[in-house]
Queue: 2 jobs
Job 1
Amino acid sequence: MIEDLQSEGIDAHGVAADAHDEHVLSAAVTELADRFGRIDVLHHAVPGPLGRGFGPALDIPAGLMRTFLEARVVSALVASQASAPFLRRSKGALLFTSGTAGQVAHPQTGIVGVPQAALRMLVEHLRQEFSSDAVFVGLIPVDGVPAYRDPRADAERTDTGAGVPLGDRFTAADVAEAHFRMARARDREEWVVGEKERGLADTPFGSA
């Protein structure tokens, strides 16, 4: 992705960071802020090891639940704390990607749903605390499994539950477009993105 952006003349840079290491993650956010001089939008989308994310709640190992909570919730908190001073200066936006299992107890999704529900509450608190700073805080629960750009990679993915259909459907680009529009328009605090957003990435901004 970075190379694609650079090929279009966009100044793009990335830093790899372990979302489970708060010091490394915080340093990565600060490094990028220092490089570009500001943060306008911080987007957090760390779900945890989704290939192990489906099954009965009573069978969930405690350690695996901690892993998912660290990925989905603790890393979101760390990234928010690290970016806060920069977002306050830019009056920027914090966007979080999640899923609908945090609202509805879909069968076999307890291990992803509990952290999603916790993230929702964290987002509410961040929204309250940033309200006086004109920092926008948005949540995008994704309802379904968006398709990858590469059909072969999409067909071979291992991050879905058994029996989840992976045919023609909305795409990761549609989800990305929803994030862009939310950050620009700031007209809704939450946007459940799913099949109804199919083709959104191909629709001119302002017409949907």
Job 2
Amino acid sequence: MQKMVQQTTIQKELQIYNTLFEKNHATEYGGCNYNDKNAELYLINLYSENNTAKIAADTYSYNATLIINKTQMKNNKADDLADNIVNKKSDKCLLINTETIQDNYNNHIQIYSDKALHIQNNTFNLTLNGKVNVKTKLLSPLKDTTISSRIKIPFKLGSTTYYVTKKSDNTFYMNHKYTTRGSKTVTITYPSSTYKINLKVNIK
């Protein structure tokens, strides 16, 4: 796997295979990849870790095609909008067989889109810290502004399922008070989804 040490900017079409993006930093958009040329960007079998940016520490795509397949994104951090991927005004954004990992989730959106997201066979493994007998915010890592406000998303906490409606800021979240310490599991499932959102909550 080759290592990339700087951001990639796309002109018309670009396919990137078998690449490591590590410890890149962008003062604005896209810590690893930036695409605003109405072009097609294909990211296949990539690994990105500890990248940072103002917005989208992994990939920023504007009015362009974005296809991501067999990719792992770990502990990337952005100041605003989404830690990993921001998709704006792009009719085709497809994520297949990807894994998103955050060892310190801190309730920050991982993927943002203002067009419909197409996500298949993806896994989100996120770790959040909370305190016993204090309400903990449990936030879905996806912000898709196209999802209807009538839809209710199930949050499964242990054996109990809560149905959460979309908030005015286009996020899905709930507050929950844990009365015992230890590691808790939250599973979030979107309608007709083929991916898993696993939220591990460490209550101290």
